[in-house]
Amino acid sequence: MNILVTGGAGYIGSHTCVELLQAGHKVIIADNFSNSKSQVLQAIEAITGKKPVFYQIDVADYKALKQLFCENDIDGAIHFAGYKAVGESVQKPLSYYQNNFCTALTLAQVMQEEGVFRLVFSSSATVYGIDNPIPYKEEYPTGAVNPYGRTKVMIEQMLTDLAASDRRWSIALLRYFNPIGAHPSGLLGEDPNGIPNNLLPYIAKVAAGQLPHLNVFGDDYDTRDGTGVRDYLHVVDLAEGHLAAMDYMMEHNGVEAVNLGTGQGSSVIEVLHAFEQACGKQLPYQIAPRRPGDIGEYYAHPGKAERLFGWKAKRSLQQMCADSWRYTCRQNNL
Ligand code: UFG
Fold first, then answer.
1. Vertex 235, ends 299 and 263: CA angle to 5°?
2. Torsion angle, CA of 35/38/43/46, rounded to 10 degrees?
3. 205-241 in b/e burial notation, b at 16+ Cβ within 10 A?
4. pTM, whole model, 2 decimals?
5. d(CA 8, CA 31)
6. Among 89, 200, 222, 234, which is least packed, fewest CB within 10 Å?
7. Alpha helices in the chain (DSSP H)
């Protein structure tokens, strides 16, 4: 199939492009490099031996996206393009609503006009809000607590309305838990600019000697060691989940919200220890105050993905850390 991947040069997008190319699909990437680098395209080609078609465009640019559809016989789209930093979304809500919502709206509009009805949307466990019992199940009410999360909820609602309006649509709303790790080649991974917000990139920088220690945000949560517990999953497992969703959508119409997670929670200290094993050294940390907006513990109920898509995360926390460390070493010539 010819698959459009918006945000295909980003962290999850690039890993998904690799899996799509290796499965024999043709990949057309639309990315404006707002949070990614052009070298990623070379890495995708180096891993797969295949060159994706690339458009450096803003997906919210209607004319540019229309031209992309006219020049390529698109069968389906995976929509990753969007801003994703929770803290920044609180500072700049308009830019999050504008960018995230307008890209999704323009894409859906052009797809409808061009008669392409298969769409995978990159959503997030953040849509569950804070009052639901764990593990999170897809049927729970949504309700995000920051502008970033609210853009995901709004887009899910728009796409649900769209699917209800026309039976030809087949839409998967994939709710990711905490993707970490890197491609086992060491060529692709997560490399945020500046000081990372997320746990794994932060630990990797401590391990590489670029930051002095990890700040553990709170050790007084009601969890097994007092630190926050999340459902970390390997980015390659996550990428495979998108292919499984695409396969399912070949045979089914309508809209489905589906969790992609392992169903297992790990604490901050457990992740730190797993990374220490991967890099072979002790990593310094300090207990810091809780981060505003964080909750103690959540993880996925992963059953629906297995039932519908036949997909299950299979890579361990150890493997996630080992792959992430390999990528860090390569990036920093360690
Ligand atoms: N943490 C630290 N120190 C750090 C960074 C994080 O202790 O320097 C802790 C957090 O308090 C939390 C855990 O590590 O307990 C994970 O934090 P992340 O920032 O890595 O991830 P979050 O669970 O907060 O959020 C991530 C994405 C969101 C997404 C969510 C979905 O950033 O965009 O997963 O589960 F919505």
1. 20
2. 160
3. bbbeeebeebbbbbbebebeebbbbbbbbbbbbbbbb
4. 0.98
5. 6
6. 222
7. 11-22, 39-48, 62-71, 86-91, 93-96, 102-114, 147-165, 199-207, 235-251, 268-279, 303-309, 317-331
- Residue 292: its pLDDT value, please? 86
Question: Does 2-181+232-261+298-314 carry CATH code 3.40.50.720?
Answer: yes
What is the best residue among 178, 223, 271, 283 to mutate for testing ligand 1's pocket, by most ligand atoms within 8 Å of CB?
A: 178
Q: Which amino acid is at 130?
A: I
Is residue 204 within 8 A of residue 220, CB to CB? The reply is: no
How far, in Å, is the centroid of ligand 1 from the Cα of 217? 9
Task: Locate 198 and state its tokens.
Answer: 């997320």
For ligand 1, atom 7: residue with the closest CA: 216
pLDDT tens-place string over residues 28-62: 999 999 999 999 999 999 999 999 999 999 999 99
Q: State whether residue 53 is helix, strand or coil.
A: strand
- Residue in the block written with tokens 């080992």: 322
Catalytic one of 148, 221, 248, 327: 148
- Residue 128 annotated among the catalytic residues of the structure: no
- The torsion angle over the Cα atoms of residues 201, 191, 282 and 223, rounded to 10 degrees, is 10
Pairing verdict, β 266-267 and 118-124: unpaired
Ligand 1 pocket member 199 (CB < 6 A):
yes
Q: Which residues of the chain, if any, have pLDDT below 50? A: none
Count of Cβ atoms closer than 10 Å to residue 298 Cβ: 22
